[in-house]
Design a protein that fits this description.
Layout (H helix, E strand, L loop, with lengths): L1 H48 L4 E12 L6 E2 L15 E8 L2 E2 L5 E15 L2 E6 L2 E6 L6 E20 L9 E23 L2 E8 L7 E11 L2 E7 L13 E12 L1
């Protein structure tokens, strides 16, 4: 008799275990479905109202220029290398409005934004009747801060491709664009140690900086985190009124809403 009881006991254990697994699986599926429904509702709302409208770009800024430019000189007036500091930086704050092309993955987005770039170096800006010259500082160790700051109001236009425009996240983006800006401020800031004190000097109203900035943009990324880049086809300074330099910037972009 015991030879039959042991198989029956094992069979009973297997049946009970299978029933418990079935119940757990059922509960898990029901919970997952509920989450899916909630996510579907959120994504439906997202696809209707959210269009990547707001972007903040944190950038590393620099200039492309000739190392033998006659307007970038050492203390003796001999052309030399500007060497902007590695921490030269900028920021863009932009508002876009996205127009989706029917129900495709493609869209275009015009916008309006503010941009600022700060170039730190060991060259001071001097201006005379011939224009602007960047001359190496005679006592660079006394300068705690020495920078050129440029600020613009801009109108960007982007062409966007997304792997799934209706998703909240898990979306790859490829964006190419173009923007044009007008300069609203140009100033230099120096912080100099003089004896036991530190003095700050800010100078504005330099007419020899270019009034406009125009160039292509690029943005590639995943969800709300992107890599972005910009290059200005117009020089930083007016023609023959300063060094022949073009600005470029590369950084990270946070976008959404």
């Amino acid at each position: 008799m015991r030879y039959f009881l042991f198989p029956l006991l094992m069979l009973s254990v297997l049946v009970v275990s299978a029933q418990q697994d079935s119940v757990k699986t059922k509960k898990k599926k029901e919970l997952t479905q509920e989450q899916i429904d909630k996510r579907a509702a959120a994504e439906k709302k997202f696809s209707k109202f959210s269009k990547d409208r707001f972007a903040i770009d944190l950038l590393g800024s620099n200039w492309i220029y000739s190392k033998t430019d006659p307007r970038i000189v050492d203390v003796n007036g001999v052309p030399n290398n500007l060497k902007p500091k590695w921490y030269s930086r900028g920021i863009n704050i932009t508002f876009y409005y996205d127009f989706r092309i029917k129900k495709s993955r493609f869209s275009f987005a015009p916008g309006i934004g503010y941009s600022c770039s700060n170039i730190y170096s060991r060259h001071g800006l001097t201006e005379d009747s011939t224009g602007i010259t960047l001359r190496a500082l005679e006592t660079p160790d006394n300068y705690k801060v020495n920078k050129i700051a440029l600020q613009y109001l801009e109108i960007p236009l982007e062409f966007r491709i997304k792997t799934n425009p209706d998703k909240l996240d898990q979306v790859w983006k490829f964006v190419v664009g173009f923007k044009a800006g007008i300069r609203v401020d140009a100033h230099t800031k120096t912080k100099i140690k003089e004896g036991n004190s530190t003095k700050v000097y800010v100078e504005r109203r330099f007419p020899d900086f270019s009034l406009f900035r125009i160039g292509p943009t690029l943005r590639i990324g995943y969800s709300s985190f992107n890599i972005t880049a910009f290059y200005s086809v117009l020089g930083v300074f007016k023609k023959d009124r300063g060094p022949n330099a073009n600005e470029f910037a590369i950084g990270i972009s946070f976008n959404g809403l």
